[in-house]
Amino acid sequence: METANAVGSKAPAPAQVRGSVSSGTLGRHLARRLVEIGVSDVFSVPGDFNLTLLDHLVAEPELNLVGCCNELNAGYAADGYARARGVGACVVTFTVGGLSVLNAIAGAYSENLPVICIVGGPNTNDYGTNRILHHTIGLPDFSQELRCFQTITCSQAVVNNLDDAHELIDTAISTALKESKPVYISISCNLPGIPHPTFCREPVPFFLVPKASNELGLEAAVEATADFLNKAVKPVIVGGPKLREAGAQKAFMEFAEASGFPIAVMPSGKGLVPEHHPHFIGTYWGAVSSSFCGEIVESADAYVFVGPIFNDYSSVGYSLLIKKEKSVIVQPNRVTIGNGPSLGWVFMAEFLSALAKKLKKNSTALENYRRIYVPPGVPLKREQNEPLRVNVLFKHIQAMLSGDTAIISETGDSWFNCQKLCLPENCGYEFQMQYGSIGWSVGATLGYAQAAKDKRVIACIGDGSFQVTAQDISTMIRCGQRSIIFLINNSGYTIEVEIHDGPYNVIKNWDYTGLVNAIHNGEGKCWTAKVRNEDELTKAIETTMGEEKDSLCFIEILVHKDDTSKELLEWGSRVAAANSRPPNPQ
């Protein structure tokens, strides 16, 4: 069958066949497949059902097995890795591991990330019997894990027979790449090491036939959109998160250059659109947009949303002042123009490139933006030994950014503070807006840093989120990573406080630097600091960029519990209002 290279990654050339026919095993085939699609690190937690499979992954010289502290973090790490590399993979054991990684895989599904989730399954002889196995819920039916994964993966393969194992594995992996979604592969524990004729040669490299638009549909969509936009007086473009899934970032900029329209980005699309471009005007996020950006977008008479996701969070509690009749919605495989035509099997990159050739240049909205724009203010001058404010912290983080860094923003007030950072060219940026699972950033930082070793990751994590997944700081140290983690200690779940306060939003304070020092335990390179004021922060940042530049650096920032961005205050009140709507009359 024809299969594929990972979107956005260059797979290494297949190595020469090693060994004899006897090396043709399921385990080796899977290992080579992962290497071919661009995976060089697999995040795992061992369990008795996957140990033999792990042996084969370890034996593959181009594959590095990264042992994680728990399955949830292994899944989050595969998510972060896929963001940087185009595809990620994790390996866990049956049911206890599978159900533990489930939340991370659901997050990858919501964020359109191809993650290969591999589970070591029961011995083939136990299928179809009345035997009760350990690591299960005590029933002889082994399908519970599969049923859980069916709703959060785009393909599932239960490999308990070598005759169709090759086909099942290749179909699942190629489906993940085509759909840009996670897949589930369960492999019986007694199969990885058994030779089989279907595995007797080096796997043929993956190749996917590129998707081509319906030509008539493409022509109609381009003609209707060009007519719609060329009649507009002050149109704008807004980039969304599905630009990544569609592989359309280059075509997006081609369209933007040709049109002359100002470029905004949805919050979940930050990092996918170059912010150094002269047409860039900021983040469009309704009432909490970048200054002057929201006004320009919402006053436009036509807006092109490219790859958007409109949910209650991105719409600030459904309060966007956007009108359907003024909009063009470009999804990865469909274009909808105002209240008029909606054309399917029209692919985003092809559409944008073709549209760019049909547009009249129109910079009216961009000129309006430049006319009204006033540069943002700077934090007020501090008093001597004044406690550190969050806006002062992010002023310093802004100065740390370059094309050799990447920002990981945890769910919480970091969402809003990181949105205000101006990203230099090639600076990475990731956060999990659709799923919003607190704790995601610890595993994602591990995975992203492992995939993008040319960048230094700067992670902004709240204390409440860190308590969920703190253990895998250990794995970062073991892997020799040099990320910088700002742990923002404001004594609780601040984002929840601004939506709906209560005693449940207060957490037990930890000695966070003490915890990380205990995890470090003198092995590997790790440096910590506790910061209370700007002078201490300045000194800590100088150390991370200087003598500790090759270490994992963990800086605990102590701030007041009510020190939040104004955007969180506004957003929280609007989301609270949406959550508290009374039931519709029956």
Automatic annotation (TrEMBL):
Residues 222-339 form the Thiamine pyrophosphate enzyme central domain. GO terms for cellular component: cytosol. Binds 1 Mg(2+) per subunit. It comes from the Eukaryota. Residues 1-21 are annotated as: Disordered. Residues 25-130 form the Thiamine pyrophosphate enzyme N-terminal TPP-binding domain. Its cofactor is a metal cation; Mg(2+); thiamine diphosphate. One of its GO terms (biological process) is response to decreased oxygen levels. It holds the Pfam family TPP_enzyme_N. Signal peptide: none annotated. It catalyses: a 2-oxocarboxylate + H(+) = an aldehyde + CO2. Keywords: Decarboxylase, Lyase, Magnesium, Metal-binding, Pyruvate, Stress response, Thiamine pyrophosphate. Mg(2+) binds at D463, N490, G492. Its EC number is 4.1.1.1. One of its GO terms (molecular function) is thiamine pyrophosphate binding. Homotetramer. This is pyruvate decarboxylase.
